[in-house]
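BUG: 3D viewer hangs when loading the predicted structure for this chain

Environment: internal workstation, default settings.
Expected: structure renders.
Actual: progress bar stalls at 90%.

Input used:
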Amino acid sequence: MKGLALFAFDIRFQWRHGFYFVYLLVCAVYWVLFWFVPEPYRDETAIVLAFSDPCALGLIMAGGIVLLERDQGVHDPLFVCPIDLRSYLLAKAGSLSLLSLIAGWIIHMTSGSIPGSPLTFSAGILLTSSLMTLLSIGVAVRYRSINSFILMIQVYALPFVLPLLGFFDLWDTDLFLLLPTEGTLRLLESLSGGVNLLEVLYSIFILLIWNYGAYLWAYRSYTRYVRMNVGEERGTNDKI
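Structure tokens produced before the viewer hung:
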């Protein structure tokens, strides 16, 4: 029940601070963009947008929410209570993944294309967004300013962009198979029906493994930098 309550709290928090409205505008921009994309390239463009959207949402918004909560003093009453940190992190990942999923489907509906496998397409968005959300939280709790966070999250996120080189046939290597975003791209390619069962199983497995690792890292980071410092005076120097 605590997990559901936290999930509902996050949805209300995001709605109250205009996150859904912002993403409505983003989807409108994508819809306009597709008018200028030639027909033969629309499927490829849709895959790239679906790839970048949950990454950007999880990486930037999750960290921004954590910093906003800290600035508003949300963490103090939250962690003075006997709250389950696992539920808190999963609620964050779940609420932002839901927003990514809604945006992903709107993007593809506006592009005029329907995924060949809706389940694998949805799994790719959900697992990628949750991974990036947990990664972002692990970074955000180490910093007090949004500028420091935005600078460092780009460093952490850079390796996950590399599989796009293979997607565009610029550079391909088996090392990309170790990165979760290689699995993301393969799941999203279900848009064209070009993914077999083994690729689906590999993609879900690699994303689940990385999600678990990101969860453990976010949990330890939150425990060290937030939970152990509840009530700490705001304005402390950045912790690195």
